[in-house]
Design goal:
17 strands, TIM Barrel, globular, Rossmann fold, alpha/beta, 2 domains, six-stranded parallel sheet
Amino acid sequence: MDVMLVNAPVTVRNGHARLSPPLGLAYIASALMDADYRVGAMDFNVSGLNLKRVDSILLYDEPRIVGISAMTETVENALRIACRVKEKSPGTIVVLGGAHATILPESTLTNGCVDFVVAGPGERAMVLLADSVIRGRGDLATIPGLGYEEGGESHFNPRAELPHPDDLPFPARELFPLEFYRDAWNVLTATGSCPYRCPFCSASALWKGRRQIRSPESIVAEIGHLQVAHGVNRVFFTDDIFTLNRLWVSELVVALGAMERRVEWGCATRVDLVDADLISAMAAAGCTGIQFGVESGSQQILDSVKNIQKDQVIDAVNASVAAGIDAVCSFMAPFPQDTLETLEETRLFMHEVLAAGGRIYLSYTCPYPGTLFHDHAEELGITILSDSWEEYDAKHAVIETEHLTCDQIQMTVEAIAADLGLSKSV
């Protein structure tokens, strides 16, 4: 085998971690396969981390390159995998990419088990790296986003421009065990991120607000392929902010409605980027679920971190429920300005959302690297309580604020979850 692509897992297994196959790795796999490389893939979020599986891959598949993708929460497990590869097969090249390596390429490269890091888009970079390592052609200095050590010095090449999603081959999902994912058929609708710079979100640090929108024709072509090849009748669009461009949404809704076989679909967006007419049109074209990022039930907090209005939340939920769409509102706590009083406002507002027919997701605020909450923690009054990336799971408190201790945060969030009847706080 030429390249084995590995998705590093969370330490504590949970349903969210294996919600969908790692689409980024599936796209990299397609790019490599189009360049005539033999590619395999392993998602340890499905199987759980077992380093003996790494040994088996090295023994039986003998990959020349092992490419590992990691988020902040999973980077420590990624490094465990990398070190196991180097222990068992020192000549195998280890590459680490993904969100964490993109934001913190320098510290990721300094681990002695990693030969290369890739910051930013990985499709072209991995093909060019394989050309260099396996076919002996090309110059490392020309590979976009590549970080490497040479002559005792670290080198980091400029990142690649965002690929246009229309230009990418369909992702090689078949390399992953699709039957084990809840939403196996996640479909890319844009590369990059939304233009909003929410202080708790690392997407803007990853992509600096850059964005390329996929054409409705390309999206419909992939869905049609999935219907024919796999009998798919439901997909989830991966865009963080699906309704940012209303003209594009309108065109996609028309294209989806014109498909010979109807497909159901879900998406995520902001409450201030929908209205009843748009939601009705989306429902008519097959939309059955929307996740809205709400974050807080205190208008004071929303004004500081999200710039949306509480009545917009209720309007969006009402319109969705009226159209037969499952409306999920995600919240997190705490924010730097939160107090016990503002968290009580959030609890009461969540009951309003439930009364309107919406559902609730609740998580802990996590100061991911690249966010304002991480990079300017001290001036925001945030105390980060852990230096272990494994703790960055949004499932327990890892911060204190000027107004709230860790115990107060943990107890209050758990009390809110219990009051709402949530089985878990996230």
